[in-house]
Specification:
CATH class of the largest domain: Alpha Beta
Low-confidence stretches: none
Shape: globular
Radius of gyration: 20 Å
Strand content: 15-25%
Helix content: 40-55%
Number of strands: 7
Number of domains: 2
Number of helices: 6
Order of helices and strands: HHEHEEHEEHHEE
CATH architecture of the largest domain: 2-Layer Sandwich
Largest sheet: 5 strands, mixed
CATH superfamily of the largest domain: Histidine kinase-like ATPase, C-terminal domain
Structural class: alpha+beta
CATH topology of the largest domain: Heat Shock Protein 90
Mean pLDDT: 83
Length: 253
């Protein structure tokens, strides 16, 4: 059974690679022709036609993002984590700075919206002290980026968003969590939320690829850690993950 599962995973990896590479060129063509149409015929197009063109361009961007996410997911399945000394406080500061900048840019675009459609500012909470550990710096950064982006994306409009990052040192692991007071996830969906292309039925109107949490799971499992979710619809979600303690020259057990 284990051999069959491994073979299926390898087949999926090959399928992902082939499909991703084959889709790149047509998506670039769609984006190019859509941009050309807007430049050449923009003034002549009706508002309805401009809306259709906008939908085409947004769909092409989403498809391109999905391909990049799939390629990243596939790469993570082939490569072992490159362990190095990581100052988590510094790494998290970079992620938070980038996240806050993106949030500020998003809020600038909101200035023209009616007051009822504007989103309240975000409160970020992180511990003063965070560990120095051995991990794949790029992978750990991706984990925090994906979890913070999910919290921002699936917020509730009626309450100010609060995102808390936590850490606890255990005998053999470093335990982290990212907690929000967003939409939350239905219990039946939580078990498959870390699988590829899985998005809850209540978030269909929000742009996304359904790959982010699968990437998080793969990165943490590549470190021989664990990841799990605790979520309540209408109250929020907490993602917990662990990174084993390893010394220089060792591999995660």
């Amino acid at each position: 059974a284990e051999l069959q599962l491994q073979r299926r995973e390898e087949e999926l990896e090959n399928f992902v690679n082939v499909i991703s590479h084959n889709l790149k060129t047509p998506i670039i063509s769609i984006q190019g022709f859509a941009n050309l149409l807007r430049e050449e015929l923009g003034p002549q197009l009706s508002p309805e036609h401009l809306h259709f063109l906008d939908r085409i361009q947004k769909s092409a961007v989403l498809m391109e993002k999905m391909i990049l996410d799939l390629l990243e997911f596939s790469r993570l399945g082939r490569e072992l984590p490159k362990l190095e000394e990581v100052e988590v406080r510094e790494l998290l500061r970079e992620v938070l700075d980038e996240t806050k900048l993106l949030e500020q840019i998003s809020r600038k675009h909101e200035k023209s919206l009616p007051e009822r459609d504007k989103i309240a500012p975000v409160e970020f909470v992180a511990p003063e002290h965070l560990p120095r550990l051995r991990a794949d710096s790029s992978g750990l950064k991706t984990v925090f980026q994906n979890l913070l982006n999910n919290a921002l994306k699936y917020r509730r409009a009626e309450v100010p968003l609060r995102i808390e990052i936590g850490w606890q040192e255990l005998p053999r692991f470093h335990a982290f969590w990212v907690r929000d007071n967003g939409m939350g996830i239905e219990p039946l969906f939580q078990k498959k939320a870390f699988n590829l292309f899985q998005r809850g039925p209540q978030v269909g109107h929000i742009s996304g690829t359904g790959v982010g949490l699968a990437v998080v799971r793969r990165i943490i499992e590549n470190h021989k850690g664990l990841v799990r979710m605790d979520s309540k619809p209408g109250e929020g979600t907490t993602i917990y993950f662990t990174i084993p303690k390893v010394e220089a020259g060792e591999e995660p057990a």
